[in-house]
Amino acid sequence: MRIERADASILHADLDSFYASVEQRDHPALRGRPVLVGSGVVLAASYEAKAVGVRSPMPGHEARALCPTAITVPPRFDAYLEASRAVFDVFGDVTPLVEGISVDEAFLDVGGMRKISGTPVEIAARLRERVRIDVGLPITVGVARSKFLAKVASAVGKPDGLLEVPAGGELAFLHPLPVRRLWGVGEKTEARLRDAGISTVGQIAQFGERGMCSLLGHGSGRHLYALSMARDPRRVETRRRRGSIGAQRALGRRIKSESDIEATLLAIVDRLGARLRGADRMTRTVVLRLRFHDFDQVTRSRSLREPTDSTAVVLAVARGLLDEAMPLVRDRGCTLIGLSLTNLEDHGPVQLAIPFDAPDHSADLDLAVDALRGKFGRDALTRGALLHRDHGPDAPMLPD
Given 105, 164, 170, 262, which residue is catalytic? Predict the structure, then answer.
């Protein structure tokens, strides 16, 4: 057996019954009840409906025959896309090495993060907690040394679970599983394997590569045999540059003061500014998102005439957006605040606007702060507004 990685540090994060979970989150009356998204064809089913055999895609009349008490709701793709973006913002906070597979799942590489973030399992546990608290959705995470095994682990760990395949335990985990767990095994391939007396992954390994090639052809045979031996050298790919970055923080159900909300915004802006400069990107649009006690939410955005990577500029825009939305916050309370920087561009030469202003040294300050935090940790410097919140009383201060 050949395993390419020395540590189980690849995560596969997969939201549970994504569309149905969003509906149950946004409509409390649906929680704990069987829910079908889509009427003609079931696009998603809650786990209460899956428990009686409902699957997607399945004709609606078949699903309702299996589960007469199911509640059918129309899809709300805008809500699902927004929830997906919020979850991927959490992923981006965990590691820059994120490979999105679909709107509800991704691979994350957390190798080399042990000293600053803990073990991969500890990182996965915090990721699940943040998605649950910040976005209000359940998510399952598989942890393994390869993308294939991490995905299998998340499938086995569902719903709302965390499952690690420890380094060295790959075959012990994989071989008892049914052949349908392998990528590339559909109904027809499963039938051919069953006719040959093969029902588990371990039996594929015992059958051997030559036997599998004789049974299924050279390409499919080699592929399935390699997977049965836990061979998957593919890395997490992040080639496509993201068009936005963001972060959000849950505020809890307790009523927060306006100063508390603004302090949370300050902390988010500081972190996003560092991420923006670290990726050598600039932003043109700032988007503020607020969620209220009834899970309703509002979004405000503003675009800039020139792209920027300045924390001060982003903070000024974000504060303006928060001021506009503050009357709603006073009336309805705020349980979550999020900020996204969109319309990102690669950093390049900037055309100065006329008239030329006095020299602006804020960029130098940003770079100096980034360097100090990179060397001594995020808590090395903090703003005065955050001094008594998340940092010790002796932390140096930044100007507000």
Answer: 105
